[in-house]
Amino acid sequence: MIRRAMIVAWREFKHTALTKAFIIGVLIVPLFLIALVPISVLLLKPSALPLEGRMALIDISGLVEAPLQEELTPASSDFSEQSTTSNLPSINAPNITPEALLAGNPAAQMAAISGKIPTNIEIVSFSPSEIDRLRKEVLDGEFIALAIIPEAVFQPDLEDKPSLELLLPPGMSPNHTTVIEKSLQDAVVQARVENAGYGYETIVNLMSRPRIQASRLAEDGGQVRESQDLKRLIPIIFMVMLWIITATCGNFLLTSTIEEKSNRVMEVLLSAVSPLELMGGKLLGQALVSFVMLIMYGGLCIVGLAALAQTDLIPPIVLLWFLLYFIMAYFLLASFMAAIGSAVTELRDAQALLGPATIILLIPLILWAPISEAPNGWLAVVTSYIPFLTPFVMILRVAGSAEPIAIAEIIATLIIGYLSVICMIWAAARVFRVGVLMQGKAPSPFEMIRWIRYR
Fold first, then answer.
1. What is the pLDDT of residues 221-264, one digit of tens each?
2. Which residue of 30, 181, 222, 317 shows the fewest CB atoms closer than 10 Å?
3. Rounded Cα–Cα distance for residues 24 and 174 (Å)
4. Which 3 state secondary structure label does DSSP give 165?
């Protein structure tokens, strides 16, 4: 019996994981998307064309021309580490400077790309009476832009300050537009501060946010650097990975069962194996497929954490709990899918029966935020004991809780979850043995429940 089930399992694995569609869609495409990040950086480098020309300025106050010229001169806007790293978000990891992050992180380089556009712009001031002529000259390409600064923007007691007006010629590059807009905003802020009698550089230094070097105390008394953003992301990544892999493999099992039944291949298989052996083999075969996906995606996550020197954020015991809850989630969903696939002959008939599974799979995505914020709250505890939600909720809790989840609670949810797996496989097997030989109209959920009671 076991030998025949394993033959079916290998056949199911071979026809799913060793196909071009699976290799391209599940393995090659994610790797290609990851490789696309550094490629995009290389492609963006030559596209950062310099911004050159003359820019018209109408500013009655006369305060903006000098700081704007300074913003748009080559010395201040050419690509440099300072101009590029100023576009990066704040970094909370110690010993990682923005320059170091920029040098070894393609994503950071993409975030800083706006600082790579060298500019060489001459600012020319005009009076408001010349606006009509200047608009035409912008259209003709004599000026790359026309900026109009209302005098009211410098009134400190005016709450609703007017907007700056920037007129651009057709076809202006979005990157060039962003550089001009940012430079104009910074120049107006600098003019306001200096007009109020303060030193602009002093104010900028006073208002700059200090970096925080967060470290977690280790049990041996040492310190381990902490990345709060990664610490928040890890539970979500675990849950989403669990969700995607189980849903994908469950869908593979559903479609392959329906296809075999509609093509009458199922009848040939049943001449050699029993319905229970067939269903067991299909479950094990797709389980192997799910482990291939788990090893790939999980390995990519661990490699990413190792590159950031943050592997200590995932204790080995959490990986063990994740594996146990992953197996639980797979067999709960896969057995449900196998039962539905055996009961129908067309995929569209299965859609009506998939409603409960779809709703159940959406609940963890809806509840992940409150559960992540309070892993030991009443909502997290209650949903941990609902069988189909148990694996998703518990992986959020064990991976994201600041305080370790009680081992008794983990064991209790594992016992309840695996008892539910046994019950679900038993019920699915009873539906499977009847459904694989049924043809014609798709059964209703109540009919499938009656099949479970057949002896």
1. 666 565 666 677 788 888 888 888 888 888 888 888 888 887 77
2. 222
3. 35
4. strand
Q: Which residues pair with 149 in a beta bridge?
A: 59
Per DSSP, what are the bridge partners of residue 53? 121
* Listed residue (119, 123, 139) closest to 179, CA to CA: 119
Given a contact cutoff of 8 angstroms between Cβ atoms, the answer to whether 237 and 395 are in contact is no
252 touches 347 (CB < 8 A): no
* Tokens standing for residue 62: 């006369």
Contact 338, 255 (CB under 8 A): no
| CA–CA gap between residue 380 and residue 395 (Å, rounded) | 11
Rounded to the nearest integer, the mean pLDDT of the chain is 78
Name residue, tokens 């007129």.
167
**Could you count the other beta carbons within 10 Å of the beta carbon of residue 160?**
5
| Number of other residues whose CB lies within 10 A of the CB of residue 181 | 15
pLDDT class of 27 with cuts at 50, 70, 90: low
Q: What is the pLDDT of residue 222?
A: 61
Query: 119-126 and 215-217 as β-strands: parallel, antiparallel, unpaired?
Result: unpaired
pLDDT of 302-314, one tens digit each? 777 776 666 667 7
Mind giving me the DSSP string for 9-42? HHHHHHHHHTSHHHIIIIIIHHHHHHHHHHHHHH
The length of the chain, given as a count of residues: 455
Residue-wise pLDDT for 79-120, tens only, equals: 333 444 444 444 444 444 444 444 444 444 444 444 457 788
Span 195-228, pLDDT tens digits: 888 888 888 787 877 776 666 665 566 665 656 6
Q: For residue 279, which of 335, 236, 320, 213 has the smallest C-alpha distance?
A: 335
Q: What are phi and psi of 268, to 5 degrees?
A: -65, -40
Measured distance CA(254)–CA(220) in Å, rounded: 50
Which is it for strands 165-167 and 145-149: parallel, antiparallel or unpaired? antiparallel
51 has pLDDT over 70: yes
DSSP secondary structure of 175-219: HHHHHHHHHHHHHHHHHHHHHTT--HHHHHHHHSPPP---EEEPT
What DSSP assignment string belongs to 243-283? HHHHHHHHHHHHHHHHHHHHTTHHHHHHTTS-HHHHHHHHH
CA distance 188 to 148: 11
- Containing H/E element for 358? helix 355-373
